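User: structure tokens for this one?
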Amino acid sequence: MSETMIALVTGANKGIGYEIAAGLGGLGYRVGVGARDATRRETAVGKLRAVGVDAFGVPLDVTDDQSVTDAAELIERLAGRLDALVNNAGISGEMDPGWVQDPTALDLEVLRTVVDTNVMGVVRVTNAMLPLLRRSASPRIVNVSSSVGSLARQADPDIDIGPIMAAYAPSKSFLNALTVQYARQFAGTSILINAACPGLVATDFTGFQGPRTPEQGATTAIRLATLPDGGPTGSFFEDDGVVPW
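Assistant:
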């Protein structure tokens, strides 16, 4: 088995996910680029390889059980284990003008779709990859969340947390709560799992609105994916430190 550290980043063909893959690759990780679209996936792999990253494509639709199973089998064949899993893939769901999702008029199908990707997708991928992660001496799991999932910030009238997003924001609160449950389950093991907020990043996800670059948005996730043994687990971080639940 190779001693090179192995990482999988979901939704890694563009934006923050791509920069997480690039950052881990720059640290010497062999990186699986998880993405649904074959053309975009292979384009990303080519770009990463062009800058010296040992990257390989992983066909992966986090909402599809068979796709996730196949991805785990592919990593098993190509690498034999997994040292870092970054659950980055996520969607906002259909929005009204102004990036609003009105809870009083919320289409339940929109909510279902967002939760399937942002929450159930993370469970699908994490559980499928666990046998590979358990083969690592220092397995790390990072769930890419958002500060809009912070109930403390959402409920504070003195904090401008942005528009009402009745599908997206609660999906991140749900993801945060799951991160804590995983951390409780992993207590006493070498697996560290944390949530990361990238901040407001200018990508196609935000209509390219935001003060941060994708590279800046990737910083916290990269740090959490490479934590030393004995590092924090079951916590929620942004660049400035801990985010309140």
